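Students often ask why we bother predicting the structure of a whole assembly rather than each chain alone. The short answer is interfaces. A chain on its own may look different once its partners are present, and contacts between molecules only exist in the joint model. In this exercise we take two input lines together and write out one structure for the complete complex. Read the inputs first and try to guess which parts will touch.
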Amino acid sequence: MTKAKPVRSSALSNLEPEPAAEVGQNRGARWSLVETHILEEATSLFAGRGFASTSMQDIAGAAGLTRSALYHYFANKEAVLSRLVSDGTAVPAKELAKIRQRTSLDAVEKLRAMAYTIAYQQATRPDRFKVLVLSESELPESLSKAYYDGRRLVLKEVSAVIEAGTRAGVFRPVDARVAALGVIGLCNWVAWWHRPAGETANSEVARTLAEMAVASLAQADPDDQSAPLSTTDVLGMIKKDLAKLEHLLG
Amino acid sequence: MTKAKPVRSSALSNLEPEPAAEVGQNRGARWSLVETHILEEATSLFAGRGFASTSMQDIAGAAGLTRSALYHYFANKEAVLSRLVSDGTAVPAKELAKIRQRTSLDAVEKLRAMAYTIAYQQATRPDRFKVLVLSESELPESLSKAYYDGRRLVLKEVSAVIEAGTRAGVFRPVDARVAALGVIGLCNWVAWWHRPAGETANSEVARTLAEMAVASLAQADPDDQSAPLSTTDVLGMIKKDLAKLEHLLG
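Now the answer. The structure tokens for the assembled complex follow.
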């Protein structure tokens, strides 16, 4: 452990929490703002020098907080990392579960919403996800379990929607696990190439990838479905084509 | 630097190269086999303890070679890492360039072949790629440049094929860079979830992902193409439908 050093006064000292007695009442927007600030600074430190070589003193220094102020927010370094793990795995897994349970959406709409959710998160906070992947081998045992459990849950949610879509005939028959991991990769990889931009640019990237995810599995053409065409199907197609021709000829 | 220690005799000592005088003639299959073995062992060490904390002595020990034998294959640790970088970036970029230049393939077939190439490589040697991504920040300057240049080349090749496909009307109109990065992510992510299995399982995974990559961008339906249909187009469609009907009626 690094020995505690006095922290120089900082432009961010106004982020220090209210005295302990008031903390309970004040856990609102401001508390959450400071927490996010601490998590961002901790992410940079963990990414730069590794989890093991980062102390609470380092995090306090980077965040411009005194050590004692930092301890109001996080009991120890493991608590910081634990929060990064749950934000990066269990929290998105819960969001995906909510999407899967929405009865108003069909499988295509659910997959689109799931892919958008994952891609948008990576576009907005690429470093948060990268640091987890980079620190996989460094995670303490209990967090390592939470991390892999959370990732498994994400996979389970995406797989379930793909399976449902395949049964409903809107997705091609595929190995749902491989397909889900493909979709997750399509979206996760954003963390490696996208520099967080404005809200519009982030959501534009997420939208493009979500459309790709859906298209990657959608039944391309009803003609391709395994059921063979009947004479009635083909007559229907000809009628549609004739209507188009009629429209073109005015 | 770790001080050189005498290396205990090893079951792999038969991998040591021939005496120097014969080396030139023997750079064939056996040389390449030993090189691959060294690169695999170095990959594990770099992944486990980082590039900076790994010495040539460590690599020699892990590979069951004497230090002097190891130096026949690689002049120093940077040469080992340099080879991992080029195998992971410049070499696949060259393979993709060859695919792009094949005049017998259309854009769909080229994208399928490119995605298969990337996914198959990640399925076969996931650790090689992961260690590069994990060591990005640790790479010496010259290798860092080679690494990012190689990755940019991969992106350039995939983007070029997507652009050509969009112009030809076989791919949807998309931001080619975002779409290419999506395809690359779909394929690269394999390194994080696939345990290398037999040849059949690896290529099955690569085939599934390559099909997803193509479908993610393919024009779902010729009706959706931006160019409006002419009366001739529709007459052609009706003729095709009539031929189908004729076939169905025997």
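Check your guess against this: Residues 1-25 of chain B have pLDDT under 50 and may be disordered.
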